[in-house]
Design brief:
mainly alpha, Chitosanase, subunit A, domain 1, 8 helices, 58% helix
């Protein structure tokens, strides 16, 4: 069985990292003024890394010491699971990338809106039933709808003036990759 997480992760890392194929590259660290995430390494915030290390009963440390194995575990545990495995190829990438960039609750809300549901952020039985009802014929339209919803959401953020060009590019690139995956 193909591990879709390992297929989708490189597309999101390409959005998060200046040097996505070199986990330890110092250019993958940022502490951009105006970015509410604070210090970030390979797309993972220092706060998130501290929480994960405490959950593993490990001492906190500088985020630049995060190993690739730790980072992959955080991405899988905090953003891929539990919802992405329920989604068809392509939509899983888009949902995952949204969760990483905007938070898991917002990813569920955008998915629900693209499926014509009330967007409450709770993946309950109605959301699951709507996901199960997705067909190969309806999937491209759902991905296109979600791409549009992601852009509108980015435009509503206070940081859009500063980060909007990158967010918009990311939305287009992830939407295009998601559509390519529909035929996989």
């Amino acid at each position: 069985m193909t591990d879709r997480f390992l297929i989708c992760l490189p597309f999101t890392l390409a959005q998060e990292d200046p040097v996505p194929n070199d986990w330890n590259n110092p250019r993958n660290y940022s502490d951009t003024p105006g970015d509410s995430g604070g210090p970030t390494f390979n797309g993972i915030t220092h706060t998130e890394y501290d929480i994960w290390r405490k959950q593993q009963e490990l001492p906190t440390q500088d985020i630049r010491k995060m190993t690739q194995d730790e980072g992959y575990a955080i991405y899988r545990q905090n953003y891929w699971m539990p919802d992405c495995p329920n989604l068809p190829a392509g939509l899983d990438l888009q949902f995952f990338d949204t969760a990483v960039n905007m938070g898991s609750n917002r990813a569920v809300k955008l998915l629900q809106a693209s499926l014509g549901l009330a967007a409450d952020g709770d993946w309950g039985p109605l959301t699951q039933a709507a996901v199960v009802a997705i067909t190969p014929a309806t999937l491209p339209g759902i991905i296109k709808d979600e791409t549009g919803l992601r852009l509108k959401t980015y435009q509503s953020f206070g940081g859009y003036r500063e980060f909007g060009a990158d967010w918009s590019r990311r939305d287009v690139e992830i939407g295009a990759e998601a559509l390519k995956m529909v035929s996989i």
